[in-house]
Amino acid sequence: MKKYLIVGVSLRSRGGEAMVFEACKKIKEINEDNEISMATVNFHYDLNFLKKVKNPYNINVLDLSSRHSSNRYINFILNHAYSLYDLVVALLNNKLLKYLNLKLNYKEKLTKYIDNTDIIIQIAGISFTENFGIFSAMNWTKQMLLARIMNKKYFCLPQSYGPSGKLIKFFAKIGLNQVTYIMARGKKSIDYLNSLNLKNKNIAFVPDLAFSYEDPTEHEDDKIYKRFGIDASKKYVGIILNAHLYNWKGEQIIKLFSKIVDFLIDNFNYNVILIAHEVNEDNAIDDRFINSLIYDNSVNMRNILNITDELRANEIKSIIKRCDFTICSRFHGMISSLKMGVPPLIIGWADKYHEIMELFNLESLVMDYRSINENEIINKIKFLLDNKSNMVDKIHQNLNKYKNSSEIMKKIIEKFVANHAQKEDS
Fold first, then answer.
1. Counting runs of H as helices and runs of E as strands, what totals does the chain give?
2. CATH code, domain with 176
3. pTM of the predicted model, to two decimals?
């Protein structure tokens, strides 16, 4: 029996749900007595979500919020000061004081959680990228160093890496050289890792875990269709947007997608379903917010289904199954579309979209949110519809190659955990 600690993810996202539950399923297959904890900054949401779904893998939710001061600037300084303190204390505790049977206390919650586990499982969508900046890179590096100093196994589950400048690459090289295994989910990530010239050679392509996550049954499909009045005789397009698009582009993105929604209805007689892929607690801005603004600014409201309910990952897949295609800026909305054999048109903000669509030879469907305009999206829609049959074929031809991602992950973890146990016994 081992203690596993999941970091880098929240269940607020349906992608997070799929990746966490698929990872937990495999961890329990390794040994059903394995204990699983998840450290999260969204403690209350994740705790309540697991209660609602009856916590199928008995995940222990750990609070990762670290508020040392009510002043955010002082809090920022203290967080980094305590992080450095904990690194020094970890070195002392594990390299010197253990021989004296002494131990200093840690300041940060995460350090205490790492100290109390055997194996860290990092489930991050993307790391060491310019998109998230230097402080994100420093935080990952700190985690990885702590795990190495404390002699913990650290597995980076399938995710994207880069691109970045020299400073973030510097931290990436330090951090990733400390971990047990690195799983990259596409060519761009592999290329980025190769550019670091890591001493750590435990690197492999492993598809996104959501490709392995179970699909909804026909009974589950029928239940969701009845719930929202989704009619098999009608044509649907699913739109799965990221609330950050509004934060980045404001009213411009609302006006743009309201026009696109009306274009789909007026020119192709589609019914449009607005789907929230990530939700927040406490009335914070989330995907429902941007969807409601688009709905309110569209002319053809009668042909729009704006789903404000909090859906499960497979409930979203059931809805996608009814669509001719989707328009996605949520990464795992894209994965779910591919999994259901439905071509996704992508509004991306990072390389991670391109490297997944590249696996299906569909990278031509990816657009960058920074430069999109109405004509570009309309031309892509027309291109997709003209070539839809070919695109569906490409999805089905490639999908089976990626459905075993979690089994690959499981075998990697099993191998290194078993080797570690043998060394301890000897």
1. 17, 14
2. 3.40.50.11720
3. 0.94
